[in-house]
Amino acid sequence: MFIRKTVACTRPAAFAGLRRCLSSDTPTIVTRLKADLKTAMKEKDKVRLPVIKGILSDIMYAEKSPASSPTFSTYSDTDVATVIQRVIRRRHESITSFVDGGRPELAEAEKIKIAILEQYLPQQLTAEQIEARAKDVIRKLGASGAKAIGPVMRDIGISPAEASKARVAEIRASARNIVPVGSRYAFHRYKSTTTRPAAESAESSSRVPLQKATVTETSADGRTLVTTFPNGLRVTSEPDPGHFSAIGVYVDAGSRYEDASTAGYAHLMDRLAFRNSERFSSADAMAAIEKLGGSIMSSSSRECIMYQAAVFPHDVPTAIRLLADTTLRPKFLPEDVEELQATVPWELQDVESKADMFLPEKLHEAAFKTGTLGNPLLCPPDQLGRATPSLLADYHKQWYRPERIVVAAIGVDHQELVRMCADNGFADLAPASPAGAAADTVSGHSQQEMPDESRRSWFRKILTGDGAATQTAGRKSLYTGGTWFDAKPDMDFTQLYLGFKSAGIDNEHGLYLYAVLQMLLGGGGSFSAGGPGKGMYSRLYTRVLNQHAWIESCVAFHHCYTDAGLFGISASCRPRNEHALFDVMATELEAVASGSGRLLSRSAIRRPYASQEGATALEVRRAKNQLKSNLLMNLESRMVQLEDLGRQIQVSGHKVPAETMIKHIEAITPDDIRKGAADLLKNPATLIAQGYVDGISKFGPQVAANHGIKL
């Protein structure tokens, strides 16, 4: 190891710790790395070469990252050592994951890489050296009492190059043994890095000690960690080694919670994401996002507003800063609201021109006429003109409360995630007042009072179609059913949606049942193509699309929410066939519900499958296999994993693994499918149509009566 020579240097005013500089004649870590890189290239060292290239790349990214300290220098051993130690920590996490996954050869490879990296770290201080330095500083300052801990820590000036985080803990222990203090947690008010701004240190000194205030729970399989801050905000993570990390913030808010005065505000909050905030202007936020080079997005649904980012591991601190500012500290400026008022109408026109986006909204409005799930997902034009910065700020204050927020991450060390969340203000967010907390209920009961079976997991979007589900604030959704016809005779095709009330998240068995039924019915378009597993053997494909050339598309759907769901069939056909299409759709649902024997209805169209029994064991098994395949393939996506984790913790407070979901799927029987389909037909139907609708207007009631459907 080279010899460190300490010379006089000026400590930046923004820093709490003392920076030590190297003399110009001492080789730096970067200099050694570059020299060793040339040697490894000449010798074609396949072990050292990728490790050295990787750490030099990490140093370059750290230098350019917005999260770096203002005085970060590529040639500062203090900063470079911090980067190396961070990489070593990540590799230790990978070793744990590889060992748990039964890949000891990969774990051994990681240990070799760690040994190479540790050769470039300066000599670490021993516990005796740390204690000696602490005693020397205390003697010089004449320090005593809790108030002296801060000055002592600053003047000790231990840098990351001289001591790791574990060593810093020893510093605290040494000083605690020497300086008499009244609080066991006094030292937790001060962070150990020398690169933290003094302003942040002063701000954090008023916080409740993190170790004393938080509660961390681990799932039964040991993969999922959940930490709850004193204010009720939850932080959850799962270890998953990879080339990038995923972070998300999930807010329990959405269109179902809105009333006439706030209709569409969740949509506007989504459109105002990553704009002006306390620490970022719109231009700064955009520049930071472009520099990250990852995927950063926001979206709003009926029961959740989510913000997600996928970035390289070394960019996680910057991503969390962006997410924290846009969720906790946004600025609602008049110019931003004016821009929304000018651009959102174009978005509404675009959605209205696309039947696959517009008609599901009309389906919800007709099915839930009393509000909640029937509220508009997009901001209505008249409401848009009444939106003001102050009203949006009030909406943010009402719904962006800590007990309604979950921060989730995949591929991030949990303790580091908790620390970064606390440093960025998630732990400081004021909790709701008792009156406000009392208003947040699920179907009239607080979540804590609900039986465990009523707080089951949120199912993946691929199982439910829409998948938005969370705690209900206020009223329980009320399904009404109804009709809505939009006459546009010039359209090329007539679009029909036939829906019924189905199971919500509070009915776990029904949730999996209708997921299997959706796969069993399946369907597609007239140009659908593919092999097994692509829906070619589903009922709506073999019994509808293959039999009727005049039908353009026919697909089963299932939208699932906390306390209700919508299950049905959407289809399109050539004009003047819409009443016959309605008959075909109703016949297929009745066929699944019939169980055995001939259909009771007097179908207007004689079809070759009209007398077939209900779902067979072979069909149910095929549907379950396809559902399991889709589930597992989708969970291979890191962003799907992230959303699944965040939403499950938000809804039920715990993570249900895929293995448990598969067991629930396997438990579904053909008799369950028959009973579930029969239960659908007991409720009033929701029927909407767009295009040439004369036939459905005239003959729709009679067709419905033939199938026992209530309109």
Describe this structure in words.
This protein is of the alpha+beta class. It contains 27 helices and 15 strands. The longest helix has 24 residues, at 77-100. The radius of gyration is 30 Å and the shape is elongated. Residues 1-25, 66-72, 173-209, 437-472, 529-533 and 604-611 have low confidence and may be disordered.
List keywords for this structure.
single chain, 711 residues, alpha+beta, 6-stranded mixed beta sheet, elongated, disordered N terminus
Can you summarize this structure?
The protein is of the alpha+beta class. A 7-stranded mixed sheet has the order 3-4-5-9-6-8-7, with helices on both faces. α1 (29-43) packs antiparallel against α2.
Reconstruct the topology from this structure.
Layout: E1 6-7, E2 21-22, H1 29-43, H2 48-64, H3 77-100, H4 104-118, H5 127-141, H6 149-156, H7 165-178, H8 198-204, H9 210-213, E3 215-218, E4 225-228, E5 234-238, E6 245-251, H10 265-271, H11 282-292, E7 295-300, E8 305-311, H12 316-328, H13 334-352, H14 355-367, H15 381-386, H16 389-399, E9 405-410, H17 414-423, H18 434-439, H19 461-464, E10 482-487, E11 494-502, H20 508-521, E12 523-525, H21 539-545, E13 551-560, E14 565-573, H22 578-594, H23 617-634, H24 638-652, H25 658-666, H26 670-681, E15 686-691, H27 694-706
Parallel strand pairs: 5-9, 10-15
Antiparallel strand pairs: 1-2, 3-4, 4-5, 6-8, 6-9, 7-8, 11-14, 11-15, 12-13, 13-14
